[in-house]
Amino acid sequence: MESAPNTHLVSLAAGDLLMVLLTVPFTSIVYTVSSYPFGEAVCRASEFAKDLSLGITVFTLTALSADRYMAIVRPVTHHVSDSTGHVAIAVAIGIWVVAALLATPAAIFSNTPELVNPKGEKFHICTPYPEYLGAVYKQVHALVKAIMYYLLPLALIASFYVLMARHLFISAQFLPGEAAGQQRQAQARRKVAKMVLAFVTIFAICFLPLNVFNLWWHFAPNSRETYDIYWHTFRIVGFCLSFINSCINPIALYCVSGTFRKYYNKHVFCWCTRHSGRRDWEGAESTGTRITTAVRTEQIPLKMVGTDNGTQQPPAHRLTLTNTTVLTTKPHHNPASLV
């Protein structure tokens, strides 16, 4: 758990849990009732949690891609550094702070205005766009969210993976005779890279419809007039996919990571599996400096010099044997132990 990918995965899981608990119940009920039944405080908290979770998700995926780039392109520097774990924790905390700052406008400006439908019936909605800020704020807000939460992160992630693919291709050409240990390490790093790529692909698919709808709704000059059942269905599908993203990440991780799958079966489905207690190398934890000292004392009869062929029984002499072994001098993370 001290590895950088695992630190980011814990942060990603916390953001997903925040989305599922604080946003999905209050947003989904909008499509089942005619008027928003909660007050303005719940509306602000729900919109803030939605933007916070979205920021945590996309920024964590970007950080995971950057970490995989460093692990594959510069494995020695990335592996030997003693501060890798501390840097990952600092980055995770920074992601939460930045995501909270970017979600602050949703907490400040979200409100529940009263509207009137064509039948003359009054109802309330929860919206992050106050009327007194005008249409320009809606357009700027939608455009900034599309750039900061979707287009820019995906461009950075794509750049990291293009550079990783180029490095792996060149390495496969010029290093055909890698040692077995190096091949296993490279294979483990590639597995983690594939895991991150799966997360990114799922994110890109899940949030594409919602971003397309928001940009169309706020920038198309006749969007209000052309809004029909098809656009309404497209909007609902976009909301559902954005929420499904928070639920599908652990499923994707279970499918692409053998280590995660093994420990998930062990701790969650423990009644279905029986383990012999053997600890294999794949799930080995990090090992710090450890010094083993073995002391053994034995009584060995020694032959006295000058006796008659050693027939006289000499007194037993104690001989103490001490063996000190330094097993390792640096913390070590087995690449295969990364989920």
From TrEMBL:
Indicate whether Zinc appears among the record's keywords: no
SUPFAM superfamilies xrefs:
Family A G protein-coupled receptor-like (SSF81321)
Listed InterPro entries: GPCR_Rhodpsn, GPCR_Rhodpsn_7TM
Cellular component annotations (GO), alphabetically ordered: plasma membrane
Keywords (alphabetical) are:
G-protein coupled receptor, Membrane, Receptor, Transducer, Transmembrane, Transmembrane helix
TM helices/strands, residue ranges: 12-36, 87-109, 147-175, 196-217, 229-256
Name assigned to this protein: Neuropeptide CCHamide-1 receptor-like 3
Provide the species name: Homarus americanus
